[in-house]
Structure formats: C-alpha cells, structure tokens
Specification:
- With 297 residues, the chain is of the alpha/beta class.
- The chain has one domain: Carbon-nitrogen hydrolase (Nitrilase/N-carbamoyl-D-aminoacid amidohydrolase), CATH 3.60.110.
- The protein has six helices and 18 strands.
- Strands 1, 2, 3, 4, 5, 6, 7 and 18 form an eight-stranded mixed sheet that branches.
- A hairpin with a 5-residue loop joins strand 6 and strand 7.
- The longest helix has 19 residues.
Length: 297
C-alpha cells in the first residue's frame, strides 16, 4: 500500500526460526513474504541468516554460494518480481573465494527483481555470555568495510533512503549516526539476537537508535529455539523516529508484522530535536598516571 499524497508506504517484517535445512527455510520465507504482501506491504524485510542458521562454521562454509551464482538470491529475485514488492533479504552467507572466506550479506531487491544494493555486516559478534553461551562470528565471516544507503523503490517521489545494518551492528551508534547524516530516513536491522541479550537490550537499543537518528528503524528478527540449540529473541519491531514502537511481533514464533511508514515523521522529529546538526568537536582530557588533580576546576 502506497499513499503518495502523505508520502507513506506499508512495510512488512518477516519473523522466522530458520534451521539447518535450507529448502525448509526458503519455503517458510516464501510463505511469510507472500503473507506480508497480502497485507499490502510494498517493502518486506526478512531476518539475518534467512536461508540457514548454523553455528558450525564448516556447515556454513559448505552451503554458502557465490554472489553472482546464488540460486537462493535468484529465488528471492523471482519472488520480488512476482509479487511486485521491494524485498530486503536480511542476510545470506556469501562465498568470496575458493578459500572459504565468507561475508554476512544483506541484499535489496527491486519490484522488478533487480538487485539494487548489498551490505556486508561490519561488526562481528565475538562474545562470551553468562552461562557459557559463546559466539565467534569472525571465525567464518570477513567483516564489511563500508556503510551503505540505497533508494527504496516503493512508488514515492523522491524515493525514501534506506540505510543498512545487521544485528550486532546495532550496538555501534556511530554507524547509525553516519547513515542518518548521509541522508538515511529508514534503517534496516535484520537480526538474530540471542534470547539472553535480547531480553536485556533489544527494545532499548532499537528505540535509542531511532531517537538518536530521527529515522524509522525496521528490525526483522529470528525467534525461537533453533535446530542447533541456539535460542533467539524474536520480537521484531518497527520504531518511529520519535522512538515509539508502532508494530511488534508477539513473542518468538514465526509471523508477519506490518505498519504504515509516514516519512513526514522523519522531518518532524528532526525539526523538533535537530541533534544531527549540533555536532561539536571536543577533546578528551585523560590525566596522566600519578597526576594529582585535586583543586582543578
């Protein structure tokens, strides 16, 4: 659904519980994308690791395809063309070379099936959580080197500008500020947040990034207990530039959420709080070891 008079369009987020069987994951993504389109969404986003969620680097490397020859990407291009929607595939494991180097790549596909832009996840999720939960994303992915903004072909003039990010990127506010200052009005955050960190930080971080940037934040998530034993938080969200949650998935089960994105709210938020124009240079005063700073005002 597009409202050209009010400069709004309908966005849909697909929440999944991807596992180890790629064909099963693709069939589920197809079903949910069609459901989102049936609800009038003209921009549809899937979560991180749409086609395969696997902790074993060897399995991920074995199943990854080269970008230009990806049958998975071709399937999604055909689906976008059939449904005439802008399809944002949250991420796929893409092979870079014969040495099994991979990138975690997000892809934007036009309603005509054209590949418009792609983004490689910059920040690697290398953490050790309470309870023994441990991840080393850098073991099988090469980090991206650049941020990406693309025009979103949803029938509006001018086309809205979408900034890209993936999951763990969410914790690096400088990336989001740079996207907003470069013109992004919406930022995608396809994710596979762990249940433990999601319960503590998911809503807070997404709302903070929206408030700081004056952008709509659209975050399609993985949710549930996966075949590899990992638990992800779900709760896919769409957040307004004022930090309001305008759509939210009910828990962790696979589902679709939709919301109408009124781009005038971006301008309104940035006019009310023009923080993106208020940057000032500053230095950080770090006392040298052993110095006595008593009495300094």
């Amino acid at each position: 659904m597009i409202d050209t008079q009010q400069q709004s369009f309908r966005a849909g987020l697909v929440q999944m519980c991807s596992g180890r069987e790629i064909l099963d994951n693709l069939n589920e993504a197809d079903r949910l994308i069609r459901e989102a389109a049936a609800h009038g969404a003209v921009y549809i986003q899937t979560p991180e690791n749409t086609a395969l969620l696997e902790l074993d680097p060897k399995v991920t490397q074995r199943e990854a395809q080269f970008f230009n020859d990806s049958s998975i990407l071709a399937m999604f291009q055909n689906l976008a063309r059939e449904l005439h929607v802008c399809l944002h595939i949250g991420s796929l494991a893409i092979r870079l070379d014969q040495q099994d180097r991979l990138v975690n790549r997000s892809c934007l596909i036009s309603p005509s099936g054209e590949l418009l832009a792609h983004y490689d996840k910059i920040h690697m999720f290398d953490v050790d959580l309470v309870g023994g939960e441990s991840y080393r994303e850098s073991k099988h992915y090469i980090p991206g080197q650049k941020s990406v903004i693309a025009d979103l072909p949803v029938g509006l003039t001018p086309a809205p500008k979408l900034g890209f990010s993936i999951c763990y990127d969410l914790r690096f506010a400088a990336l989001y500020r740079s996207l907003a200052k470069a013109g992004a009005q919406l930022i995608g955050v396809p994710a596979a947040f762990t249940k433990q960190t999601g319960q503590a930080h998911w809503h807070i971080l997404l709302r903070a990034r929206a408030i700081e940037t004056g952008c709509f934040i659209l975050a399609a998530a993985q949710g549930g207990t996966h075949e590899n034993g990992r638990s992800t938080y779900g709760h896919s969200l769409i957040v307004s530039p004022w930090g309001e949650v305008i759509a939210q998935a009910s828990g962790m089960k696979p589902q679709v959420i939709v919301a109408d994105i009124d781009l005038s709210k971006v301008a309104n938020a940035r006019t009310a709080i023009p923080a993106l124009t208020h940057d000032r240079p500053f230095a950080t005063d770090t006392p040298s070891p052993g110095s006595d700073r008593k009495g300094i005002k």
